[in-house]
Each structure stands twice: as structure tokens, then as C-alpha cells.
Amino acid sequence: xxxxxxxxxASRRSEVFARSEALRQERLATYSSFAAAVEDYRHGQAxxxxxxQQDPDGEAFVTARDEAHRLRxxxxxxxxxxxxxxxxxxVILAAERAYQRTRDVSTARDQVERDALDAQARQTxxxxxxxxxxxxx
Length: 137
Fold this sequence. Notes:
By secondary structure, the protein is an all-alpha fold. The chain is built from four helices and no strands. Helix 2 (59-85) packs antiparallel against helix 3 and helix 3 (89-104) packs antiparallel against helix 4.
């Protein structure tokens, strides 16, 4: 009887550990995917901005704009996964800020503003990684 109780407790601890480890691995994959996606989006937004400055009616701008829209959609999809995997409000806010700041890069009126918005986007991506890393260690 006592052996059975200890076996059940050991089995339960093993199940809890396995579930916890699976969640940690899924968070690691999702948080990494979000950081990569938002970084790609940031580059796409920069390309969009530069192409618009060169020729706002040109084919290169239209292509860059369309690519930036595709990257935005991909980033939002991973952002939704981040939200589904955590109830940590700071991680969710950090991810949303990274997305919003990155989105803003293409709205700059001049090079100085574009550089400042890009730097802010990079900083918010780093802040997301810092907050998220606490949940996967």
C-alpha cells in the first residue's frame, strides 16, 4: 500500500515536470520566433521607408511595401501565440510594444526620425527578449 502511494506521487511529480518542461520548450520556441519575426519586420519596414524615399511610385517601393505587409502579418501571428502561451502581463506588453514600435518605423518623415524610430524598435525588441527570458530559465 505504501509503495503504491509513493509510486503515484512519483508518477504525479513526473507528469507535472513533463508538462512544465513542454510549456517551457514551447515558450522558448515561440518567444524566439517572435523576436526573429519582429526583427525581420523591422528590416522590412526600413526597406519600405528607403524605397519610398527613392521613388514613392516606383516598383521597388510597391514590392517593399507588400513585403512589409507580409512581414507584419507574420509578426502578428507569432504575437498571438505569445499571448496564448503566457499570462505574464509584462511579457505581453513588451511584445506589443515591440510590434508597435516596429510598425512605426515606416512612418518617419525624415532620416533622423527614421533612425530614432528604428533605434526605439530595436530597444523594445531587446526589452521583450529580456522579459520573456525570465519565463524560460
